[in-house]
């Protein structure tokens, strides 16, 4: 009985240790440089794009809209980060080792969620600070700032299940590259460019994904210009509902999806994957 009651806590402790181990190299040393470079690139692009996008009924500069949307929409990086770390763990044999541990897949998934969400949330907070200081955005009140941070955290959590669902298809270099392209396209179409100017089928896909609604909410909170929005208006309540649905339903589906994926982790499969990668890379 004691062992059963302490199981969730032991899983959380193991996941927290894994998250700390994954997060530490990302925020210390060269990892910190990479974070600063990525945030600076977004702010520089936003700063130099000081005119409204032609063809849209917008009075706000492209850079202002881009930076405001990136505060929330940058949560899409969670999907890319989960895909990249899944690929690294798979070809390195870490997933195979995790599979044989008690509650290993669940612990691994919780740890990845913690490390990627914390990492991306730090970057979103830095983008918010940079947007307020360097981009033509009205200085937000304390309440608006806290609201944006809450949206950023909510958006990162909502994107995590989608990252796990996409990462189960990563089995080699090519599938990893396809995964990165899909994540990048979803990020660009949902955050970096006016979704209202994209084809109707793209808008339909983005309407059910957290990638669009994440940027939608921070554009609503920081700028209030609906020219980039589908339908030409803001729907904050609907946006929050979509993000919460991805968190509740998405995380409810992640454990069985991850368990099913881990069943395919075998010594023979690992040898074939490593042999294929050596052949593809010419090693």
Characterization of the model:
Helix 6 runs antiparallel to helix 7 (142-167). This protein is an all-alpha fold and 283 residues long. The protein is globular, with a radius of gyration of 20 Å. It has helices at 2-27, 30-48, 62-73, 77-92, 94-99, 104-134, 142-167, 173-192, 200-207, 210-222, 236-262, 267-281.
Can you summarize this structure?
Helix content is 77%, strand content 0%.
Q: How far apart are the termini?
A: 52 Å
Number of strands: 0
- Roughly how much helix do the residues carry, as a percent range? over 70%
**Largest sheet, if any?**
none
Sketch the topology as an H/E string, one letter per element.
HHHHHHHHHHHH
Mean pLDDT: 87
Strand content: under 5%
Report the principal-axis shape.
globular
- If you compute it from the alpha carbons, what radius of gyration comes out, rounded to the nearest whole angstrom? 20 Å
Structural class of the secondary structure composition?
mainly alpha
Number of helices: 12
Spans with pLDDT under 50 lasting ≥5 residues? none
For the structure shown, list the relevant keywords.
283 residues; mainly alpha; 12 helices; globular
């Amino acid at each position: 009985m004691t062992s059963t009651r302490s199981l969730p806590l032991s899983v959380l402790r193991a996941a927290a240790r894994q998250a700390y181990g994954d997060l530490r190299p990302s925020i210390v040393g060269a990892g910190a440089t990479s974070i600063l470079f990525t945030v600076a690139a977004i702010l520089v692009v936003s700063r130099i794009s000081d005119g409204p996008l032609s063809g849209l009924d917008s009075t706000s500069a492209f850079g202002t809209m881009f930076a405001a949307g990136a505060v929330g929409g940058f949560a899409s990086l969670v999907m890319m980060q989960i895909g990249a770390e899944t690929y690294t763990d798979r070809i390195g044999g870490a997933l195979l080792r995790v599979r044989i541990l008690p509650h290993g897949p669940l612990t691994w998934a919780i740890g990845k969620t913690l490390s990627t969400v914390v990492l991306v949330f730090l970057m979103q907070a830095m983008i918010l600070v940079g947007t307020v200081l360097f981009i033509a955005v009205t200085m937000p009140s304390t309440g608006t700032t806290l609201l944006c941070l809450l949206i950023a955290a909510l958006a990162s959590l909502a994107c995590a299940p989608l990252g796990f669902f996409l990462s189960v298809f990563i089995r080699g270099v090519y599938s990893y590259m396809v995964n990165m392209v899909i994540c990048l396209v979803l990020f660009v179409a949902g955050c970096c460019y006016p979704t209202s100017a994209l084809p109707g089928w793209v808008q339909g896909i983005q309407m059910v994904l957290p990638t669009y609604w994440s940027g939608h909410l921070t554009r609503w909170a920081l700028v209030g210009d609906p020219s980039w929005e589908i339908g030409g208006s803001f729907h904050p309540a609907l946006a929050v509902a979509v993000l919460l649905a991805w968190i509740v339903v998405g995380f409810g589906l992640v454990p069985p999806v991850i368990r099913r994926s881990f069943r395919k982790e075998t010594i023979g499969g690992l040898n074939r994957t490593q042999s294929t990668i050596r052949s593809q890379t010419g090693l």
